[in-house]
Write a structure and sequence with these properties.
The chain has 242 residues and is of the alpha/beta class. Helices cover 36% and strands 17% of the residues. It contains six helices and seven strands, in the order E-H-E-H-E-H-E-H-E-E-H-H-E. The chain has helices at residues 17-31, 52-66, 85-98, 113-128, 173-180, 202-219; strands at 7-12, 35-42, 70-76, 102-105, 151-155, 165-168, 224-229. A seven-stranded mixed beta sheet has the order 3-2-1-4-5-7-6, sandwiched between helices. Strand 2, helix 2 and strand 3 form a beta-alpha-beta unit. Helix 3 (85-98) crosses helix 4. The mean pLDDT is 94.
Amino acid sequence: MIQKKPGIIAFAAHPDDAELAVSGTLLLQKSLGYSTGIVDLTAGDLGTRGTTQDRLNESKDAALLLGLDSRENLGFRDGFFKNDEEHLIKIIQVLRKLQPDIVLANAPSDRHPDHARASELVSDACFYSGLRRIVTFGDDGKEQSAWRPSRLYCYIQFHSLKPDFFVDISAFMDQKMKVILTHKSQFHDPESNEPETVISSKHFLDNIKERASDWGRLSGCRYAEGFIIKRQPLVKDLGALF
């Protein structure tokens, strides 16, 4: 009997967060037979460049390149969503619907205030989702069963946080950069007439690759992505760590 590979869902405050930070990992895990998905909390409607529709369309293009099994947008208000009951319930509903074994969340501290807030919100929702006395209903109107992911890891974004572990994405670095560039309204485009931002400069994309290269140097591979352990995992086989 073939054992089902765990499901991995990356939650992201904005439509390009997961692409920048963990698209290499998602591509790797997909190649290993895991189911993968992204849940965007907002449509990034406060972004300086592009429209909300641009960003939704770009997210769909990125999902195709990533080979995702699912991608959805919760429509939270960009810049103003809160860690409160209303937002927690919506994330709990998604967790119980998708039932991921592994959740990837935004950085616990970062330049953009939404990232840390999203990290805390998703972390809390992962816990509350396992409490059966919190009653939620699915899209079909039926009561959902409690579900708690077994692992929660935070990816690293703008700030240079220290990773607890690395994932080797050497075989997927070129594809990762292609995925990032599907968000063409946000990143370097010499023909664009929109205002330049921190992330729209050519140097920003160079920095993404340079960081992956440096993490690869530290971990013994060509390119890597870094993660922070939010909840300590239980290891049943030391050999499984290598």
